[in-house]
Amino acid sequence: MVTSHTTTVTAKEFGELFRPLSNWSRWGPEDHRRALNHVTPERVTAAAGLVRDGATVTLSLPLDTEAAAHNPKPAHHYMIELGPPDTAPQSVHFHKDYVGGDYHNDGHSHIRGSRHDGR
After folding, report:
1. What's the domain range around 94?
2. Is residue 3 a part of any domain in this protein?
């Protein structure tokens, strides 16, 4: 049997829990890198030394566009431009996606910059 438990906290209690874990302003008011400040040249060099075979592994999830119990607010995804049907070998055309959704919901991963161009 699965049971759920909900705990109510005040805004003040939430702030007390959130502040020590937040990277907002940790490196100053003008900082835009936040947690990426931990990715120093020394750490990148050390990590590169751990590479054995060059395989890459994605940590992302597919964009979940289907409503389900785990995903009550699914993402929206559709193409808004498919480019001209030009068949010339040197032609360049672009494809554009529309992606919308609740990025902090459980049903999908963070959005990355996708490149959709046809050459």
Report:
1. 11-118
2. no
Task: Annotate the chain with three-state secondary structure.
Answer: CCCCCCCCCCHHHHHHHHHHHCCCCCCCCCCCCHHHHHCCHHHHHHHHCCCCCCCCCCCCCCCCCCCECCECCCCEEEEEECCCCCCCCCCCEECEEEEECCCCCCCCCCCCCCCCEEC
Domain presence at residue 2? no
- The pTM for the full model equals 0.42
pLDDT in tens, 5-51: 778 888 899 889 888 888 777 888 888 787 888 999 999 999 999 99
Show the tokens assigned to 91.
């032609």
Q: In the chain, how many domains are there? A: 1
Assigned domain for 4 exists: no
